[in-house]
Amino acid sequence: MSLAYEAGLVPLVAEADVNAPWNGHDTRVLIVAVLGIALIVTLIVAFKVHAFLSLTIGALFVGVASGIGAGAVTKSYEIGVGSVLGYVGVLIALGAMVGKLLADSGGADQVVDTILRGRTGALPWKMALIAFIIGIPMFFEIGLVLLIPVVVLAVRRTGARAMLLGIPALAGLSVLHGFVPPHPGPLAAIGVLGGNVGITLALGLLVAIPTVIVAGPLFGRLAAKWVPIGAAGAALEVAEGHHEIEGEHSTPQDAPPGTVRTRTPSFTATIVTVLLPVALMLLKAASDIWMSKENALYPVLQFIGDPVVALLIAVLVAMFTFGTAVGFGIPELSRKIGESLLPISGVMLIVGAGGGFKQVLVDGGTGTAIAKIAIAANVSALLLGWIVAVLIRLATGSATVATVTAAGIVAPLATGESTTYLALVVLAIGAGSLFFSHVNDAGFWLVKEYFGMTVGETIKTWSVMETLISVMGLAMTLLLSTFI
């Protein structure tokens, strides 16, 4: 039963009875859904309309054409936006705060410098590890901008081929972006499907680690042979410029006290801060599985392991380890936290609009119709979610749009399933949302320009790596589903 219907705001056009006989309304809403998605894709790809506006227009079209009614469709959309952003938006904001403080304090540089010490032969594996650690609190684009110049400098110093070190770093960032909370895609899918963040995080790490190994260091060897380039592109210029002026900016003489860092956080403090919310959420998930509710420790773990509380604790700890402990004053920390929210506004709007589009699909009966087909064809929510996400990803280039839309479409098929199965559905959708990044994806062009590759070389390396992550992620998810 939809949120809008339960609130008494929207007449439910099609009751969520997936075992009812096929009818004319089911055919109608499927055609409308296809036209709605096509409209969204056309607006984004052909007319370059922002994804938020495109999703909003598509949602209103689908709602009216499905029979919800012009007066009620906006209520359905608004409730969908609120239901997703009311939870996901807070988590995205808190994660952005930790990521901003990590970058500005020099903590990310500390992780890189510490892990890169030692044998050069292990560099591909170290690059994957660095990306995995940094990628937990940071959005993909921020991690990419931060890490790729470091990769190019390492390539220049060691004489290695760029893709040997670049692919592992890209794989680590991309896998975290698609599979692991608190990244927007997984969080949005969890919110839509009613999943559990802690269980999704635990299973996401199980899927992510072997996927990074295969698509990162192992595939990186092959990619380096296919595209044997060295240090080049925009990343080399950024890295060289950064190191030329690093000393000048690290200790400016005329800066007011508390506005610049005077120290760098230690490697231990950085790792503890970054992994703290992950550990707290995993403790909550473990208590759900293995601890009795009568245990006095159970409510404590439930509270501190709640994603909002865990990330809030991480922000407060980061304000010390990445803030006052390195020389920033409270006013400067407040300014940085405010700045961290600016880049995520677009992401949050897209996630919210995706939730609105999902709600209109549910209230119009599209999800029920698709569930009927899936049941008749014996297609699981796991596989259907992956396929739908792949199609939308190929069409729009947006992993987030693909995730929230696919989650809404398969939601009726996953109704009544366990939280563990819902977590696997989230991961399958996340895997599909990463399939074959190409010219309609901003990440494609970032990678191309940073490494100085041609379009063809970017497809042979980055695009193939994304596809390998997608297929490997689906395979791991299906494998885990056999044990649950």
Automatic annotation (TrEMBL):
It is a multi-pass membrane protein. Keywords: Cell membrane, Membrane, Transmembrane, Transmembrane helix, Transport. One of its GO terms (molecular function) is gluconate transmembrane transporter activity. The chain crosses the membrane at residues 29-47, 53-72, 84-103, 123-155, 162-180, 186-219, 267-287, 307-328, 340-357, 369-392, 459-483. One of its GO terms (cellular component) is plasma membrane. It comes from the Bacteria. It is found in: Cell membrane. Belongs to the GntP permease family. This is Gluconate transporter.
